[in-house]
Amino acid sequence: MAASDLTVAPFTAFNFSVEITINGGAPLCAAGFSECDGLEMTQEVKTIREGGNNGVQVRFGGPTAYGTLTLKRGLTSTFDVWTWFEQAIADSSVVAQTEVVMFDQDGLTPIVSFALDGCRPLKLKAPPLNAKDGMVAIEELQIAYQSLTFQPPA
């Protein structure tokens, strides 16, 4: 079968789960996140000019930088991320592992996952309070991570 005969539909972005585990213990979050952004890697490229040949430049891979994961969810009576942030302030050795799993349209079948290691809470933002809006209170958590691993389904 030729590659041009194969039609592949893109994944949808609304079926996902986020699981945060502190120091290998039980999962931290008891509520789902409605938004997840910041799964990214950037590799710095080093450019070297070849002596005597102005038309050639050699490029080498340099260090890799990772993004900041931003998670949003409705504020509930479960204050687990607030507790984690306070633990991380009190003890700098408190790190977490995070797994973001995307599911097929059925909402049950994992299609891809991203493993983040060395996660530390970077910013925790309470929802804006406005009596005239009547909107759901959304809290925002930003996480710095040391590595990102792409994991295709088994």
What's the topology here?
Elements: E1 16-22, E2 35-37, E3 41-49, E4 57-66, E5 68-74, H1 80-90, E6 96-103, E7 110-125, E8 138-144, E9 147-151
Antiparallel strand pairs: 1-6, 2-5, 3-4, 5-8, 6-7, 7-8, 7-9
Describe the structure.
By secondary structure, this protein is mainly beta. It has a single domain, classed as Roll (Pnp Oxidase, Chain A), CATH 2.30.110.20. Helices cover 7% and strands 47% of the residues. It is built from one helix and nine strands. It has one helix at 80-90; strands spanning 16-22, 35-37, 41-49, 57-66, 68-74, 96-103, 110-125, 138-144, 147-151. The mean pLDDT is 89.
- How far the N terminus sits from the C terminus, by CA atoms, comes to 23 Å
| Share in β-strands | over 45%
Which percent range fits the helix content? under 10%
Main sheet attributes: strand count, strand direction, barrel closure: 7 strands, antiparallel
Classification by helices and strands: mainly beta
CATH architecture: Roll
- What is the CATH topology assignment? Pnp Oxidase, Chain A
How many distinct domains?
1
The CATH class assignment is Mainly Beta
CATH homology superfamily: Hcp1-like
- Catalogue the unreliable spans: none
Q: How many whole angstroms does the radius of gyration measure?
A: 20 Å
Query: What is the 3D shape?
Result: extended
Mean pLDDT: 89
Helix count from the secondary structure assignment: 1
Helix and strand string, N-terminal first? EEEEEHEEEE
Features:
two-stranded antiparallel ribbon, single chain, Pnp Oxidase, Chain A, 154 residues, seven-stranded antiparallel sheet, extended, 47% strand, 1 helix, mainly beta
